[in-house]
């Protein structure tokens, strides 16, 4: 039974990027305006997400890492929504099954006191201590995939690539998160702390782009605003922009997505105007929720993490290929 839980968890959390995505989304859900993501040795040793959100109330301490536990009751009211974002109540329990999980948290009422919580692989709260802590939550994931040796081996062989996938995702959050501060630190083995990317608490996406990609990119952009689009795309006449898929970002209602069709459309329109160049773009599609459902827009944030927004199909995890 234990191993079944681990295998299922391995389909919720497939890689470092999906772990990071779940943690950051939890911070955003908790109303955080300040989120710090800290990696030790490319996330192989530690992935830590610290936020200034609402914290976890003590009633919830013992349950948060239980399977299907969620405190986000309002989301249950709309059952169709429950199916859309998927994984409800599965992230922390899966991370527990796959790693060593430690949580520190304090609510506004409790701070400057807070709690340090340790969970075992089954999601049971096994240690509790009262500690000084600022309002917010810190989740520390150590030795990810240590309970799935084959996956761990795969990660150890590809850790730089896996780490950069997580960074690309974080770049997207940093670009789209207006009025939020997102910082990423990386501490390589034996080395000092490095800041990888930051987006200031800025009131505009353009400023975020500047912070994440530099002024050379941000000054080459033109605003793209339409009924249901807001964003930026690089001007075709500007040469010499180093473009890669890294600088091509799509969002749906402020959440990172991949959408091959829309992506291709943007590329085609761009190429019809321009030299043989790839654009930089950061485009947020602003669509009503039911419209998203009708067109079954996929929320695909990491390669294997797909959400179907079509009402008819609840999310079913893809069976992973053996690495
Ligand atoms: P879900 O997000 O679907 O509710 P998770 O497994 O991701 O499920 O999280 C379980 C619960 O843990 C959440 O419902 C929430 O109560 C709590 N939680 C997790 N991360 C945070 C955070 N950063 N701040 C506040 N509460 C959190
Ligand atoms: Mg969650």
From TrEMBL:
DNA mismatch repair protein S5 domain location: 209-302
Family assignment from sequence similarity: Belongs to the DNA mismatch repair MutL/HexB family.
Protein name, as recorded: DNA mismatch repair protein PMS1
Organism: Schizosaccharomyces japonicus (strain yFS275 / FY16936)
């Amino acid at each position: 039974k234990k191993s079944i839980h681990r295998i299922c968890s391995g389909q919720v959390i497939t890689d470092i990027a999906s772990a990071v995505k779940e943690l950051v989304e939890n911070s955003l859900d908790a109303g955080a305006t300040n989120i710090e993501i800290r990696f030790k040795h490319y996330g192989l040793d530690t992935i830590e997400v610290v936020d200034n959100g609402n914290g976890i109330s003590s009633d919830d301490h013992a349950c948060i890492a239980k399977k299907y536990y969620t405190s986000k009751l309002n989301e249950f009211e709309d059952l169709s929504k429950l199916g859309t974002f998927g994984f409800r109540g599965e992230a922390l329990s899966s991370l527990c099954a796959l790693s060593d999980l430690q949580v520190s948290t304090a609510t506004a009422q409790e701070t400057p006191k807070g709690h340090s919580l340790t969970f075992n692989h089954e999601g049971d709260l096994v240690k509790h201590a009262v500690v000084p802590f600022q309002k917010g939550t810190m989740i520390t994931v150590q030795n990810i995939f240590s309970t799935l040796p084959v996956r761990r081996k795969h990660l150890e062989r590809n850790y730089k690539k896996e780490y950069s996938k997580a960074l690309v995702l974080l770049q997207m959050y940093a670009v789209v998160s207006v009025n939020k501060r997102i910082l990423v630190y990386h501490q390589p083995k034996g080395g000092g702390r490095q800041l990888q990317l930051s987006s200031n608490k800025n009131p505009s996406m353009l400023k975020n782009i500047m912070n994440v990609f530099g002024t050379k990119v941000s000054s080459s952009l033109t605003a793209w605003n339409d009924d249901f689009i807001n964003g930026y795309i690089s001007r075709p006449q500007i040469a010499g922009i180093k473009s890669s898929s890294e600088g091509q970002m799509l969002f749906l209602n402020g959440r990172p997505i991949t959408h091959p069709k829309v992506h291709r459309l943007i590329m085609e329109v761009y190429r019809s105007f321009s030299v043989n160049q790839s654009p930089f773009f950061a485009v947020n599609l602003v669509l009503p929720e039911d419209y998203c459902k009708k067109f079954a827009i996929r929320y695909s944030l990491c390669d294997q993490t797909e959400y179907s927004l079509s009402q008819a199909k609840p999310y079913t995890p893809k069976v992973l290929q053996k690495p």
